[in-house]
Write a structure and sequence with these properties.
Layout: H1 7-23, E1 25-26, H2 40-54, H3 72-82, E2 85-86, H4 93-106, H5 109-121, E3 126-129, E4 145-149, E5 152-160, E6 170-176, E7 187-193, E8 199-203, E9 214-224, H6 235-249, H7 258-267, E10 269-270, E11 273-274, H8 279-307, H9 317-336, H10 349-364, H11 371-382
Parallel strand pairs: 3-6
Antiparallel strand pairs: 1-2, 4-5, 5-9, 6-7, 8-9, 10-11
Amino acid sequence: MDFNDTTEQAQFRKTCREWLEQNAEPKSSSSRESFSDIDFLEVAKQWQKKKYDAGWAMLHWPKEYGGIAASPIERIIWAEEESKFNVPRGIFEIGLGMCGPVMMEYATDEQKERFLPSMAEGTEIWCQLFSEPSAGSDVAGLRSKATQDGDNWIINGQKVWTSGAHFCDYGILVVRHDPNLEKHKGMTFFFVDMKSPGIEVKPIKQITGGSSFNEVYFTDVVIPDSQRLGAIGDGWKVAITTLMNERLAVGDANGADVKEAFNWAKKQDDSGEYLINNRAARESIADWYCEANGLKNTKLRTMSALSKGETPGPEASITKIVSANKLQDIGNFGIDSLDMAGMLKPENNEIQSFQNAWLGAPGLRIAGGTDEILKNIISERVLGLPQDPRADKGLPFKDIPSGN
């Protein structure tokens, strides 16, 4: 593996950095903290539009859809440089990282021309409607129904944990059209206007105080057959395309990291001494340092594969497992260092970062695949261990035992 930039990549990185320096503030500033919940969406749209106008919005997309046909490694270089600046994030990642590639592969030319540029520009935001109350980690266990009615489909059911549904314009949706088939074979895939009659979105209040997840209810929602992506019954095949792109769209768990824990320990009192002198604290920080560097080298492996035109493998699942758990542990470390006061100092920005890490990390350990599912992927596809036994294999979906 060669982790050094080539001459061309170094020049591209320099160009990225120069544009960012002219249009954004480095992360050391407090600009990100100035965004309120009310104006964050508008600020994010303005930033996306600025990137789009300059050609930075979706580098690897074809030029006709708002990209510059950049290589995968150039996409990684841009992401690395942008991460060093205080810019709004978390609004467009699912749409651009997951919905866009699916539309690129399965939509008609007219649909691509209509939806992809507005997606890249940020004027329309997309979400992913997969998980259900009875089908979280096992997406193929979904129960939402699609009934064909001439040139339309009638959709009934419920989705849950849909990030951003409350402000999204469109979504990609997988539902079950035939319960007489095996669970992986009876599904069909659509895209849907989130303002369609019969769609009700209910934000879920999270322990962090935010509401980024939602329940979405479908009651006799009409979707034209022209908005079907893939053939009838190809829902799982199209969904897999989405989930493969999710490996790159859902990556690191952002928040308090080893640097923040180390700086905190150097100045925090611990029974008359600095916390950094505590052997257990030093051991924890050392463990997180090792994990952070392991993650860095795992991502460099992905970059190396992309630079050679290869597709990143299932080992990319390691990133989210390690980073989300590390985030939760570091959050707990910061809170625990203040004993009972650890949850009672909201005016302290450092404590807030530890609080948000500890409270938000459990959700990140679910989003994009639970720890357990990702560990199965790693054990089966990286380590070559045998698959878990499946009691539902070969059964029609309607005959699979359930709690109903």
